[in-house]
Prior knowledge:
The complex is a heterodimer of chains A (117) and B (113). Chain A has strands at residues 5-7, 10-13, 19-24, 31-37, 44-50, 53-56, 65-68, 75-79, 88-95, 107-108, 112-116. With 117 residues, chain A is mainly β. The model of chain A has no long low-confidence stretch (mean pLDDT 92).
Amino acid sequence: GAGVSQSPRYKVAKRGQDVALRCDPISGHVSLFWYQQALGQGPEFLTYFQNEAQLDKSGLPSDRFFAERPEGSVSTLKIQRTQQEDSAVYLCASSLVSGEQNTGELFFGEGSRLTVL
Amino acid sequence: AQSVTQLGSHVSVSEGALVLLRCNYSSSVPPYLFWYVQYPNQGLQLLLKYTSAATLVKGINGFEAEFKKSETSFHLTKPSAHMSDAAEYFCAVSYYGNNRLAFGKGNQVVVIP
Lengths: 117, 113
């Protein structure tokens, strides 16, 4: 596609519900990242994929957070048993290159705003 | 751990005046440095980046930034603000071979007519 597409754009969940956020990266992009942006803060790294391999998940805040990219394209971020502190904008970004070639030029989607009541 | 400091969450500037957004990083290793901009209801987009070439980097929309190792700074400037510059600006850092970007808290720029 022309850009990184994320859905849903807005999600309201009751505390304890599971949610799934989808990211469709730019076609052919090898690297895919998830970031969490709380209100008034900069984005915080969650996890990184190179094709279908999840190479870094050190930023996931708890075992309730799970991400996958099974075919090396679309990715899903799943949050189980949502809590109020999970309320944030979840950003997906992709990059054409990977590894040491990646100098940080990421293409970001518009984000999915999650509100947990 | 790599980190970035941006002071002053909200910055007001008059139309036509200088825009100056400060960014300092904490590292003893030369980093890659970036400025991203986020317009309302849009995703973050790259404004400019420093990757150990020229220390003065020019970006889109008339913005530029200068890498100063002695001051561990990468401040963003634009000589004359335009109404369309109203947006949120984020400084970010990463290191060679490390895909993680660490972002500052951002500066919300308001341009006053």
